[in-house]
Design a protein that fits this description.
This protein is α+β, with helices and mostly antiparallel strands and 239 residues long. It has helices spanning 12-36, 44-62, 70-83, 91-97, 101-111, 228-238, and strands spanning 116-125, 131-143, 146-149, 156-159, 162-169, 172-179, 206-211, 214-222.
Length: 239
């Protein structure tokens, strides 16, 4: 169950309750098989199959309730399937925002989306150095050499994989650029307040630049969320 469906296990009651249920169910099934496999007049393969079905049923019933519950995932798969023909590349922002993994999987199946999307966040900086008021916020990604944005926008321009940011925000002019393929290519143009560097100084996930009282931040986040049920759903869409 944990490998098929996403779950918030790892914190809270999920860790304290569901994991013990997994081990108890598995241990009890192993004990029953050991105790009765030679006593019951039933094929051992059939007995194992029965135990597995019972185990899966118990784990499905006890699965943490919420958006990731197996029943809700089946419902999400049905809705994504019904919307499939009408899906647009712009719908990816909705699916990421709502953490609808199966809708994202359907969009990826239809359009083959990239691994990451980007977000541009522009805000005014107060006297303490923190963002006081959001001036502009939009999400975007590159698909087939075209810019897909969360709203109509004239600030971003794309040329040979390089995105240029040209705009006036709160009377302040900003002109910056970055690469979607190698996000840190032009990192020297930024202040890098929000950069996240890996061990070798690469793997930047955020760039930040202060100009006058304006802070422009650009960061990338994963666009795809894969687990076994997602892959099975995409295979079903293909078939």
């Amino acid at each position: 169950m944990l490998s098929l469906f996403p779950t918030p296990c790892g914190y809270g009651l999920c860790l304290l309750i569901y994991y013990p249920i997994i081990f108890t169910t598995g241990g009890l099934s192993a004990f029953l098989y050991y105790k009765f496999s030679n006593r019951l007049k039933i094929n051992k393969t059939i007995l194992i199959s029965i135990l597995l079905v019972v185990d899966a049923s118990i784990l499905a019933v006890a699965y943490p309730k919420g958006e990731y519950h197996p029943i809700n995932q089946w419902k999400s798969a049905q809705v994504a399937y019904e919307r499939y023909d009408e899906l647009l590349p712009e719908d990816l922002f909705e699916s990421i925002e709502s953490r609808n993994f199966l809708l994202t999987a359907a969009i990826d199946h239809k359009f083959t989306i990239p691994d990451h999307v980007f977000e541009l966040h522009c805000c005014t900086v107060d006297s303490t150095g923190s963002c006081d008021l959001t001036v502009s916020r939009l999400q975007f990604y590159v698909l087939n050499d075209s810019m897909i944005t969360s709203k109509p926008d004239t600030v971003l321009q794309l040329s040979n994989g390089i995105v240029s940011v040209h705009g006036t925000f709160d009377s302040t002019s900003l002109n910056l650029r970055f690469s979607t393929d190698n996000f840190g290519t032009f990192k020297k143009e930024y202040d890098n307040f929000s950069s996240n560097l890996g061990e070798r100084g690469t793997g930047i996930t955020g760039l930040s630049k202060d100009t006058a009282n304006i802070r422009l931040m650009i960061w990338k986040q994963p666009a795809k969320f894969e687990y076994k049920f997602t892959k099975k759903f995409q295979k079903w869409l293909t078939d």
